[in-house]
Structure formats: structure tokens, C-alpha cells
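Contributing: when you submit paired examples, paste them exactly as shown. First protein:
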Amino acid sequence: MKPFNYLSNAVRAPEIVAILVRWGFEDLLLQLDTPQFLLRNLVRKKVAHLSPYERVRNACEELGPIFVKFGQILSTRPDRLPEPLVMELKKLRSHVEPQAFKKIEPVLLKDLGRPIDEVFTEFERVPVAAGSLGQVYKAKLIATDEWVAVKVQRADIRKTISSDLEIIGWFAKQLHARVPELRAYHLPNLVHEAEARLDEELNYTNEADNAEIFRALNTEQTQVFAPKVYSTFTTRRLLVTEWIDGAAPGDVELTVDDARELAKQGGESVFRQIVVTGFFHSDPHSGNMLVTPDRRICWLDWGQAGQITLEMRYLLVDLFAAITERNAAKVIRVAERMSVNNHRIDRRQMDKEVTFLLNKYRDFGPSGTKIGTVGLEMLYIFGRNGIEVSADYALLSKAIVCVEETARMLDPEFDILSVAKPFLAQLNQERWSASSLTSQALYPMLEMLRRLQQIPEYLQRILQRVEAEELQINFHHTGTENLQDTFNASMNRLTVGIIIGSLLIGSSLIITTGVGPLLWGFPAIGMVGFLVSGLLGLYIVISSLRNHP
């Protein structure tokens, strides 16, 4: 994450500050030591009727597509952010003006490696869809005479992302350092993780791989599919897939029976992905789903996918059982097994929070609470109490929330628990079968024996390093995250101070010489030196008073 520089963000930074003030975050900006000239004469909206989380979502939408995409990525971290905020961020949708084809065309030509008419017999210059990162065009291949969807990355998108992420990173560091109430969220780490995820989404080969993996793992499903990828033409900035005729669930005219059947198929598909294959679409909302004329479901946009191991699936079954049984003690035991760290937790406090949550949501199903919502809040309780779980569990919870919402658009009586139970029961049956129990007992025992055999070798290596005086102990000091910025600022001021001193001494020497040209009877060069040193000195004084009043 690059350090923030007002000079390089002279246009974007005031624009962001103005939008944040408009949505009622002026008090927060004042805590961040935001320069006063950025806060003057700004328009404030009346937003008292909106919750803070709703204001965050509205601000992200006004701040532009990169902030929207960033918010969408953060919505996959319910273990680190409150459930109401996650639900608001999940509503974010990119409403982006398409880029002119003349800007996109150089990217397309460079990644195709040849002229457009050598690959496509037809290429529609008007995009059929425009997102924050790329645009989709309809075309027909010369080689196969098939219609395809051509997804091209926006021109200069990496430069735009780099600029906005620099500002987001600065805000995150300032909020973490200056607002104690937000330190528990570890915002700089969240930004760093989101930045890595965004970088993955900018590489379209990842999306192509995810779609192909789904197709390979779900060959038996005929009613649910992903578009075929043309890997010959796919690069980091270009993705070519088969063209799918269809419409979003909300735009299709269906009979009650057809709608109910589609909702069931979508729910079964997601739980098959999660429970059977362990590889799943992490954002199956209605915008990423097409219903074809023959009433099949096509999952689009495979930029985000989750993967859980067999052991993680077993723990998922246990967690579902504990939640539906409202057994807080069992929930905590499962959570400790799900944890990727070994931190001690306050079991009494966690028991109170889990029990309250289970009592708060007593009814699941169409007339009650969405099970995905409970999962989101449960993960947040885990994270707040020091239990860090795999990020794929968070993606999984979001996927369940999305599929519940999409399915209930089609069938208001859709009950995801009834869809999930057969898959969970099948996994549980496989888990406790004789062959599974044998493998679960045998392989760990063989692994333990192998490790016991390696102990003498490990001890010998340690002794050899001690003898060769190569043994090192690494320390990590916490609480010094801002030390580098402080050091850089101090060195900059010291450098300016040295320059000021040099200017004063040089100017004093020149003043005594009487060398022309003269200004008010004194050498002009000496007077200019005094003026520059005075301005630099004034800058240092003002800067010091602002940062350390």
C-alpha cells in the first residue's frame, strides 16, 4: 500500500472528502486531521433518517466504481465486519457509464494479437454490459461461427485503481490510528486483503479457470451450468466465453410451478457446489444468473469463487446442526475447531453472545430468518472473540445469503433448509461410513509415525545450526506500524531544515558582497534566498503546529 500524497491526488482527494461530508462523515474526517481547506464550503445532506451503514453504501456508490468494487469485496468478510454493514455492502451494484469503444479497442487489439476482423466475422461495438472493471461485447467467431461474449478490461483501469486504493489505504490507516472504536476491525489489514482480491479479479485468467473448474466438477448437472471458455483467446485483460441467451430471474415470465422449480434448482446447485464438490460461486445473486429459454440456469461472472476442504465441510455440517439445535456450547466447540489460530477465548462471554443470537432468531425458513443472515452474524461473533476462520467460510455465508434472496424472488415460500438437508445428510452419512472412519484413523496414525521418525533429523539440523552459529531469533514489534511514516516525515523536515540553514548562510554571505543586481539596495540573489528560506521555515512551523498542537 503506497503512502498517501496530497500532491499526486490533488483532484481526487477533495472530491472524496466532499462526498464523505455530503453523507454525514464530517465528524469522522475531523478526527483524521483532514486539512481544513478541504472541508470549507461543502454541502451537507440531511441524512439523519439513514443508518451509518446505509450512508456508507450511498457514499461508496457516489464515490465511483472502484469504491463499489472495494465495498463488494469487503462484503465477503462478515467475520471482520458487522452483519448490518455486510448486508448494506452486499447491495452495492456497479452503475457504470460504458467506455467508448475507441478507448477499449487498443486493449482488445493488444491482447488478441491480431486485427479484430481476423478473429470475428461480426463484432458489435456497443457493449451489452458495463462493469467497474470491464465491458462485455457480443461477437461471432470466424473459426466456429459461434456467438461469443467478449469481456475486455477497461483502459487504464489499473491506474485508476492504484490512485483510489492509495486514498482508501490512507483513510484506513488514519481510522485505525485515531479512532479507538474502529481498531477492532483492523482496517489496514482488511484493505490489504481486499487489494489482493481485487488484483485477482483484474486477472481474467482466474475467472476463466474458475468457470472451467465448475464445469469439470458438475458434469452430471444438466439444468445448471457455466459458460464454456475459449482459452485460446483468454488473457489477463480479455475473456472470451460462449454467448448465453437468457434473462435475469426478475425479468423472466414464469408460471408458479416453473418459478418454484427454478428456485429449487438454484438452491440445490449452490449446496451441491458447497457440500459435494467443495468449489462454489461466492456471489450467486440475480445479476450473476441467467435463465435460458429452455428453463436452465447459467451462473455468470466467476471472478469470485470459494473452495472448502472435506474437513471444512464436515465442520460446516456440525455448525448447521448446532445452530438448528440452538446449542450454544456446541457452536463454540465447532468454532474452536474451525479456527485457524490458537488464541485463547473468553468462553463465558462468547457463550452469552452466541446464546443471545440463537434466541434472537428462533424461526428459520420463509416466514422467519434467513439462515445465511444468522451465519453472517455468527461469523462476526467468532471474529470479535478472537476466533479467526478461513475466509472461504465468509464467502460461503455470503453465497447462501445471495441464493436465498434470489430464490425467494422466484418462490416466496422457498425454504433453503429443506434444500440443504439432503446434501448435509448425505455428507454426514459418508463421514461416518466404515471406509471413511478407517481412513480418518489410519492416515493420521501413519502421519504421526512418519513425523516421529523425522524428530532425530530435525534435532540434528538444529544442533548443526547452533554449532555453525547460524541460529537466529526473529522478533516482531507490534504498535510500530506508523514508525516508517513518522521516520520519513522527520527526515523530510530535517532535510528542509538543512536547506533553510544553507540558504540563510549563503544569502548572508551574498548580502555582504554588494554584487548586483540590487533590490532595495541589497543583492537580489541574497534577498531571494532569504525569502525562500522564510517561506520554507513558515511551512515547517505551520505543519508542526497542525500535527502536534
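Second protein:
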Amino acid sequence: MKGFFKSFLAGLLALIVFFGVLFFATIGIIGALASQEQVELKPESVLVIDLSKQMNDKKVEDPFSDLSGEEVYPELSAAIQLIGEAAKDSMIKGVYLIAKDNANGFASSNELREALSAFKSSRKFIYAYGDYLSQRAYSVASLADKVYCHPKGIFEWQGMSVKLVFFRRMLDKLEIKPQIFYAGKFKSATEPFRETAMTDANREQTTQWLNDIYSQFLEQVARDRKLNADSLRAWADRYALDRPEKAVAVKLLDGLRYDDEVKSEIRKKLGIRAAEKINFITLPNYAKAVTLNKPFSKNKIAVVYAEGDIEYGKGMPESIGSEEYLSVLRTIRNDDDIKAVVLRVNSPGGSSLASEIMWRELELMRQQGKRLVVSMGNVAASGGYYIACNADRILVQPNTITGSIGVFSIVPDLSGFMNNKLGITFDRVSTSTYADAPSLTRPMREDEKRIVQGEVDRIYLDFKQRVADGRKRDIAYIDSIAQGRVWTGKKAIEIGLADEIGGLAKAIEVAAKLSKMTDYRIKEYPEPKSILDYVLQTYPTEFSRTQLKRELGEEEYKIMGQIKKLKDMTGDVRTELPFRYNYK
């Protein structure tokens, strides 16, 4: 029997080793195939950019994308570099924008617009087409030489709207009492759990920033199409452009075309025969066909992508975990070849402690002589502003969402839900008055509420002091523009929370200038994971989230995320954007 078990265990071990080696060999082969794939660039090519594809700040890591046949679009900074390269590339004659929808935020779209505008100045053509055109897609497509819509399609021109979701009545029905503490009259991150509609303060700030973004959109379109911004606003107010032919009549569209008709026009532009195939090359394939210029230099500028919620600890792949980013920033601080840091922030905030941990490491970096420049993306608010406030320079897009300098905490009382809905009761023995505080299974006492509110007020004061020191302003002034209030990038410059308009590329130029560097190379952080780390750590989470999103739908998935966030933030003091907005 002893011999049998020996043989069995040896065989089992051999199988485990065999399949382990096979697994890692397969991964290696897949990685090698993916890295070796080349795309041939042909003469008279047209670069295809699909605006419905999201271009994140951080590079999307998916080594299996080539095998699945699904194109993964490059990160925003790479996309902008590729458009710049295409402007100089004699093989590329024009750009074809697929403008049905736009998965990118308004600030990201603004950076894309600037890159496309520079491309257009190289005297190459840009055509935009959509079976339907959403407003957000049109915000980029309007600069094209020709903008076409399907004859039976939809042209969206109806203004912008923000929809917020409120859970107060659901919590009442479940007998869950959200015990809420906050500092700043505009700090409305807790409103979904304590109100059934927007407070007056939240409606005031939302109205202002949304109208700022809308006005910027109208001004851009008016310049692109040589129209009057007041007329554009009036057409939306009256819903006057309910059919695409009406948009043609007022010159927002250049015509109604079927897909084949647009392709025929592009052929004429290229000077090729009617039956000849157009050499379309997608942006991801163009990335494989060209090598972007990366000059070698000992001097380095570190570009750190801080994208997602700010979370204490390790965090998720799509969040900013304080543990990972502390390690990244410390590595940068100890690298003498790195002379400057550009922090690209695209975050609504999150944990106040995690924000403070990152702020401290950035401050130590500056004290060692490294210049710090912040480039704000679509959103850099609350905790996202906390980690940015001590920068030498802060660059924004006009429609960046920023500010929201305020603090909150939530401690749900689940005793009613547990007792009356589930029949679960609790009892306790404690050695001290506050031994079980804060507790989810009993209401908070008044003295406990005073302690939590005092902690919120203390962190709010620290937050304002950080901003006052970083922006070299009096704390009383910072208090007047704080209060959890949200501002657009344009307004942030006016009130001193930001310095100038510009995207990531300009922020790098500013960092080089401040550091007095004429030659440098870019080093991006966090560094990409190995294929093994991706398979073991990232892929399972990404796969589960993708499947869940597919089953629930985009909007339902976001609502579920908000409910989960209530559970996760219990007892934590947060510096977070006062809403998860979804505007069209």
C-alpha cells in the first residue's frame, strides 16, 4: 500500500509539473506571437479612428486581444503621438473618423481634437461619417473637412443633461439608515443616500459646470462650422434639428451619404479607380506599423498615470492603490536620472488617507529638487485634486472637472434591516465605551457622531491647508472656493486652482522647461505587468467585470457599483467627487 501511494503521488506530481510547464510554454508562445506581429503600411493609406473606442490614460494590458480578434485602442497619449506621426507620414493621405458615438470624456476628446487639428494643418483630409452622430462624437467630428450622416440616420442636437441616481427610498424600504458626515456645503457625494433629489447647492454647482462645458462645445462647433453659437443653442432649445437633413440645411452636416458613397468620395480624393480597394489602416494597426521616435538620453521625465478611484492599500487594476503608487513614486524619487515628473490625473478621488500618503511622497520628491507638473484629464477632483495641489504647475483642459475640495464619511446603521427583514439580532459585551465603534449593527450615539464629524472636519481643514500651501493662497480664500464645489478647468484657472490650458504633451514640455532640459526621454509608470502577472492577477478580474457589464448593461452596472461603494466606504473618510455623472 505504501508503494502504491508513492507511485500515485509521484505520478500526480509529474502531471502537475507537465501541465505547469505546458501552461507557461503556451503563455510564452502567445506572448512571442503577439510581440512579433507586424502590419505592413501601404501607399495611399487612410488612417481610421473609431471614436466609439475608449482611449484610456493608462495603457490597456491585454496580451490576448490579438487572439480574440478584438482591437484594443492605444492609450490617449499614444493615439495623439500616432496622429502626429501620420501627419508627417507620406504613406498616410487622410483620416477617416467613425463618428457614431464617442466613448471618451470631453477633456480627452479635446486633446484628440487638438491632435486632429494639427493633422489637418498638414493639408491632409479628414472625413467623418456615422450611421448616427451623437453630440459627443460631433464634438470631435465637427472639425473634419466633410461630416456626413446616413440618409436614414440620426443627428443628435438637443443640449446636455446630467442624470443622478438616488437610493434614499430604497434604503428606507430596507430600513437601512445611512449615518452621514460631511464638510463643505457643496460636498454632495452622500446625496444619493440621504436625499431623493438634488439639493439646491448641488443643483447650483451642477448647472454651472454643465453649462460651462456646453458653452465650450457650442463655441468650438461655431468656429469649426463658421456658425453663430447663439443659433446653435436656439436650435437645441427648440429641438429644431430632429432630422439629419435639417442639420445639412444649417451646415452642421455636409451631406447625407450611404457608407459606399462616402468611400467613393474618398477614392476620388485619393485619385484611385472606383473598383480599387482603399488602404484603410486602423489606429491600433498603425501603432504596429510604425515606430514612434523615442530619443535616448540619460535625463528622464517620469510620466505617472493616476487613473481611477484612489483606494487605500493594494487597490484594483483599474484603481489607484496607495501601496502600489507609493512604491512607484518612491522608485522615481530615488532615481537621480529622473529630473521631473508629470502626474497625469484622471480620478474622482477616494480615500483621504491614500490621497495623503501619495501627497507626502510627491512633496518629498519636490523637496529633493524634482519638478512636478500635473496634467488633468477628464476628472481630477477631490482626492484627485489633493494629490495634485502641491505641483509646480497644473494644466487642465477647459472642460476638465476639478475642485470638489471637501470630505465625507458614511456609517450605515443596518440594525433595522437585520432585525426586521432578516430576523437577525445582535448583543455585545465591551471593555470600553467605544470598543465597538463605529458599529453597523446599532445606531450611533450622539457622542460617537461628534467624534466622526470632528475627524471629518479635521481632514477637511488639512485638505484646505494642503491646497493653500500648494497654490500659495490664504486658507480663508481657499475655503471660499472649496466647500466641496466642482469647477471646470476654465473656471479653475480663473480662481487659481490651475495654471493654464494644455494636454499631456504640453505638460511634458512645461516639465522639461522648468527642469532646464533640452534633451530627455520619457519613462512611463506604473510599468506594464509581465504576461504571467497579467494572467494570474489582472485577467480574472477583467474577465469577470466584462461579463457582468455585458449581462447587466452599462447603466445598471454603474448603479450596482455605486451600491457596492456604499458598503466599501463604510467608516472611511473620503475625499471624492460629489457624484458619478453621466451626461450626454
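If you have annotations for the second protein, write them as plain sentences, like these:
The CA atoms of residues 413 and 440 lie 5 Å apart.
The two ends are 72 Å apart (CA to CA).
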